[in-house]
Amino acid sequence: MASGRVDGTRRLVYLGLGSNLGDRDAQLRRALAELESPKLRLLRTSGIYETEPVGFRDQGWFLNLVGEFETELFPKQLLARMQRVERAMGRERTVKNGPRVIDIDILLYGTSVIRAEELEVPHPRYRERRFTLAPLAELAPEMRDPVTGRTMAEMLGALKGQTARRRSAE
Q1: Which of 8, 52, 125, 154 lies 20 to 30 Å (CA to CA) from residue 132?
Q2: Dihedral sign for Cα atoms in the order 32, 35, 37, 40
Q3: In terms of C-beta density within 10 A (0-12 exposed, 13-18 middle, 19 or more buried), how is residue 63 classed?
Q4: Reported pTM
Q5: Residues designated catalytic
């Protein structure tokens, strides 16, 4: 699936989800359920990773996963849907990189490269973060970044530091 297209109208997208407040497992499950619609269908998820905070470090550890979806939504429509789910779940943006009930990011939208004021895809920092690369490499190790051409496995292998422990299946 080199083009990132599922068919003529649907794209393969990868969304990163994270939570470090409340029942983190339940927050992730709820977000995945609320994201799904006829135009945004969950195909599979990575395992759940427990990860140390990046940036603002004085907070609890996160649970993170990546969901692989197929969508008919355009990128800005997808962003709006994700932001509605975040707001409905009580997400408040008060401290940059601070604690959150839920965080949902578009990591990859097919092979598209998008540079707009409100949206940048691929996510501008996903290549630097173990909490996105570890689950992406689990789902699609040979998938290539549309900007650098490197595979998810290559980028993960080159990343230094940052703890991300995959939780065992329960």
Answers
A1: 8
A2: negative
A3: buried
A4: 0.90
A5: 91, 100, 103, 105
